[in-house]
Amino acid sequence: xxxxxxxxxxxxxxxxxxxSLNCTYSDRGSQSFFWYRQYSGKSPELIMxxxxxxxxxxxxxxxxxxxxxxxxxxxxxxxxxxxxxxxxCAVTGxxxxxxxxxxxxxxx
Amino acid sequence: KAGVTQTPRxxxxxxxxxxxxxCSPISGHRSVSWYQQTPGQGLQFLFEYFSETQRNKGxxxxxxxxxxxxxxxxxxxxxxxxxxxxxxxxCASSLGDRDFYEQYFGPGTRLTVT
Lengths: 108, 114
Hints:
The complex is a heterodimer of chains A (108) and B (114).
Chain A: E1 4-6, E2 11-14, E3 19-25, E4 33-38, E5 45-50, E6 54-58, E7 61-66, E8 71-76, E9 85-92, E10 96-98, E11 102-107
Parallel strand pairs in A: 2-11
Antiparallel strand pairs in A: 1-3, 3-8, 4-5, 4-9, 6-7, 7-8, 9-10, 9-11
Chain B: E1 5-7, E2 10-13, E3 19-24, E4 31-38, E5 42-50, E6 53-57, E7 64-68, E8 74-78, E9 87-94, E10 104-105, E11 109-113
Parallel strand pairs in B: 2-11
Antiparallel strand pairs in B: 1-3, 3-8, 4-5, 4-9, 5-6, 7-8, 9-10, 9-11
């Protein structure tokens, strides 16, 4: 079983819509959770970190964590074409574990 | 504050050769982690160094090694290169405090083995 699982997509949403990205993890002891954005040909960029159950908002991004369900999600409101990228979920155990990423395309 | 830097950015090597990649972390960051990224396998963890000591290691053969210097700069070495080692090698730095573990990536080194 993979430590972190994400739907690979591709996920397509129209401009202005809400994009919802999901991630599940296997280690109940995980304490820190992150979302990275990676544009094609570039390195991952940290966009959100969340450490406790509930929602954390930063601009158009909202991260949601549910440790009981071992589930973390990222919502992108008012999606823009510039949000088109691969989104990587990362979870800490004794190291960083990354999911394989979800490809998001925002259609103008 | 300057970000994570990696050198070289691009590298072409021949099978059997060895290569050394360098990473300079964000000032004040004491942890450096290395990853291999390929289209088929995604981001694979190689190892993490903290205060010049290897703190964690992924499932890679012994041909992959690393070290960290007293100024937190890190190097990664791959010996006896194989075609399958062609990948983007990324390093990421963090403060090293496990309770606040945000990692920031460098631009990567694109290694091509022919």
